[in-house]
Amino acid sequence: xxxxxxxxxxxxxxxxxxxxxxxxxxxxxxxxxxxxxxxxxxxxxxxxxxxxxxxxxxxxxxxxxxxxxxxxxxxxxxxxxxxxxxxxxxxxxxxxxxxxxxxxxxxxxxxxxxxxxxxxxxxxxxxxxxxxxxxxxxxxxxxxxxxxxxxxxxxxxxxxxxxxxxxxxxxxxxxxxxxxxxxxxxxxxxxxxxxxxxxxxxxxxxxxxxxxxxxxxxxxxxxxxxxxxxxxxxxxxxxxxxxxxxxxxxxxxxxxxxxxxxxxxxxxxxxxxxxxxxxxxxxxxxxxxxxxxxxxxxxxxxxxxxxxxxxxxxxxxxxxxxxxxxxxxxxxxxxxxxxxxxxxxxxxxxxxxx
Length: 354
Ligand SMILES: Cc1cc2nc3c(=O)[nH]c(=O)nc-3n(C[C@H](O)[C@H](O)[C@H](O)COP(=O)(O)OP(=O)(O)OC[C@H]3O[C@@H](n4cnc5c(N)ncnc54)[C@H](O)[C@@H]3O)c2cc1C
Description:
The protein is 29% helix and 29% strand. The chain contains 9 helices and 18 strands. A hairpin with a 7-residue loop joins strand 5 (131-135) and strand 6.
């Protein structure tokens, strides 16, 4: 009889990207038995394709967030991103990984944007953030927003190390196709197997809506493109353009350009071509690829429990700046799962009250 019973665990985590690995590790440290399932392999989704930098703040200017959502929202969002960087640094240290502060320089080309960034910097410096306005004429721009706390790290190595824990069992190449929740837990159905868990965390990135269809109206799949070019030029620090949608980095033997756009019908490649021609016209392109992220309709992570699905939690919607949210979003989910604390701004139930 027992041979036909599905295996059981305390928590099943769907998705072995950075988000899934972070929550799995924290729960394992609470002496819970965790099974992590991935349709492919560890860090083969957005995490494995990322541009490997966790930036301070948000892609929108602080002043824009203030106008759209009020000063309290703007301040809290930036504070959460600063906490995210602190958590990232502590995680890297505990795993013996490097996460150097490389900073970044956001270039501003129009006077309308310059006014917004000046207002943003005034507020941010008043709140104690380490940001500065610098002349950027040399690069062909009006001004630039210099930040110092942005961290570079290797998300693939971090994800792999996080999953190395005695209480974590990894099941790669297992695509979960269906979840059935009842009052005692959840049954996860894959093609040739099933699993019973007391709780499930859906950390399936861009594909989370397949398992949680109620998220579909509030989440979209956003393409992020990367191009790598061989060049002998050097760049002192990562440059950001177009409201944080384009990132240019010197990776030693090559430069890397990554881009996304909030417009679903626009192609990020247009931006890569534009900035590629401007900054590395002599470079030879060696590699180009696209990967997908989950983007919520207000740009913030989707963390928590969907009210109509007992025992099923989500940790998704991290977006194109997801490394700037993954660590703090995991803490918010942990607070909910272990201590019944409200995940605050990230609470997925914010959409259910609309
Ligand atoms: C090209 C690119 C560059 C980026 N650069 C940056 C950057 O520099 N800075 C930054 O902050 N952010 C960046 N991001 C965003 C960041 O990488 C993501 O927000 C973050 O990695 C998301 O992590 P995740 O764990 O939620 O998702 P993922 O890493 O996508 O992990 C989800 C996992 O779930 C698995 N899965 C999906 N469905 C199922 C299923 N049904 N059953 C089992 N497994 C399933 C997938 O195989 C995948 O491995 C970039 C993203 C891309 C695509």
